[in-house]
Structure formats: structure tokens, C-alpha cells
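Curious: can you check?
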Amino acid sequence: MNSVQKENTAPLSPPSSPPLGISSVPVQTWEQPYDSASALKHGTIFPGLNFPFYASGGGQ
């Protein structure tokens, strides 16, 4: 008779102390901030962080 061992299919347990997370944060260089009105319009005071999102594909 041919005996085949079953693969261990028991659920894996999480590690006892898993890491909370790993982040990667690029260094931001200094730049002249927007004036108050422009900062409010763009949602950021730094031009380098101004990444507009247009749900319709473009435009203002």
C-alpha cells in the first residue's frame, strides 16, 4: 500500500510580537511656502507637496 503524507494545513499563528510597520519617508528640502490664500486653495503650504487630484481627469 502506498502511504502519502498529507501536507500540514493547520492555520499559521501570527508572530508573538509582529512589527507595527515600516515607513519610508523622503527628505523634504526647504522651499518658499505659499502665501495663506494659496495654501488654503491648494491644501498645503509647500509647493513640493501640491499633488492635485482631479476625478474628472484634469482641469481646475
